[in-house]
Specification:
This protein has 234 residues and is an alpha/beta fold. It has 2 domains: 32-146, Response regulator (Rossmann fold, 3-Layer(aba) Sandwich); 152-232, Arc Repressor Mutant, subunit A. It has helices at residues 41-52, 66-76, 92-102, 117-125, 138-146, 152-169, 178-188, 193-200, 204-218, 223-232; strands at residues 32-37, 57-63, 80-84, 107-112, 130-133. A 5-stranded parallel β-sheet has the order 2-1-3-4-5, with helices on both faces. Strand 3 (80-84), helix 3 (92-102) and strand 4 form a beta-alpha-beta unit. Mean pLDDT is 78; it is low at 2-24 and 152-172.
Length: 234
C-alpha cells in the first residue's frame, strides 16, 4: 500500500515483475536473494532500487499480489521475502502463512503503514520473522534485512542462555539484562519504538520482543507502569 515516504521522481520506468514461470535470477556469490511482494508499483520499484544498490542483497523476484508470490517465489531461489501486510485478494499475512508452509526456512519481513499491537501480533502469528513499519529509509530496510542473514551459532547460544536463566530463576522474576535496561532507559525518555530500534542497533521486531520480555519481568501491563516500576529500582 502507499507509504507516506515515496521514492524520488528520478526513478526510471516500471519494474520488471518476475512471473512464476520465469527462471531464477543468478545471484552473485555472497549476496542474499530477496523477493518483494508489494501491490503499490512505485513503492515496489523503490524497494528494488534499494536492493539494486546494496552490496549484500539481490532482488530475484517482484510480485504485486500474494497469489503471484505463491507461484513465483518457490521457483525464484529467494532466501528472504519483503511482504506488504495489506495486499489485494490474498492478504500478506495469509500469503506469509502459506509460503512458510511451503518453504519453512524462508525468512519473511512484513512491512506496513500500521504498527499497532494487533497488526504486529498478526504478523508474528502467521510466521513472519521481522516487522518494519512504513515509512522507512533505505538504511532501515537494509539493517532489518541484515538481521535476516542466518546466524545459527548466535541463535543457538541465545536459546541456551535463555534456558539456563529460566532454570536458575525458577518462579522468581529474573532481573533485567543490560539490553533490557537499555531499552527501558529509552522508553523512560519517551522515545518511540521506531527510534529505539536504530539506537540499539536492532530490528523493529526485536524492540517489541524486548518490550514483552521487560513487561513480563516487571509485571507491567503498560509502558507507563513499566517505567514506574523500573524507576523504583534505578
Amino acid at each position: 500500500m502507499n507509504p507516506s515516504h515515496s521514492p524520488g521522481a528520478s526513478s526510471p520506468g516500471p519494474p520488471h515483475r518476475h512471473k512464476g514461470t520465469s527462471k531464477p535470477l543468478a545471484v552473485p556469490l555472497g549476496k542474499v536473494a530477496v523477493a518483494i511482494v508489494e501491490d503499490d508499483e512505485r513503492f515496489r520499484f523503490y524497494l528494488q532500487e534499494i536492493l539494486g544498490q546494496s552490496r549484500k542483497f539481490k532482488c530475484v523476484g517482484s510480485y504485486s499480489s500474494g497469489e503471484e508470490a505463491l507461484i513465483g517465489i518457490p521457483q525464484s531461489g529467494a532466501q528472504v521475502v519483503v511482504m506488504d501486510v495489506k495486499l489485494p485478494g490474498m492478504s500478506g499475512t495469509e500469503s506469509t502463512r502459506r509460503l512458510k508452509s511451503l518453504l519453512p526456512h524462508l525468512t519473511i519481513v512484513m512491512i506496513t503503514g500500521l504498527d499497532d499491537p494487533r497488526t504486529i501480533d498478526l504478523a508474528r502469528e502467521c510466521g513472519a520473522d521481522q516487522f518494519l513499519p512504513k515509512p522507512f529509509t533505505p538504511k532501515q530496510l537494509l539493517v532489518t534485512l541484515s538481521f535476516c542473514i542466518p546466524r545459527p551459532k548466535v541463535h543457538a547460544l541465545t536459546h541456551q542462555s535463555s534456558g539456563e536463566v529460566g532454570r536458575r530463576e525458577g518462579l522468581r522474576r529474573p532481573p533485567l539484562t543490560q539490553r533490557e535496561n537499555e531499552f527501558m532507559k529509552y522508553l523512560a525518555e519517551g522515545i518511540p519504538y521506531k527510534q529505539i530500534a536504530p539506537r540499539m542497533g536492532v530490528g523493529y521486531w526485536r524492540v517489541h520482543k524486548l518490550q514483552r520480555q521487560v513487561f513480563k519481568k516487571l509485571g507491567a501491563h503498560s509502558g507507563i507502569e513499566a517505567v514506574r516500576r523500573w524507576r523504583q529500582n534505578h
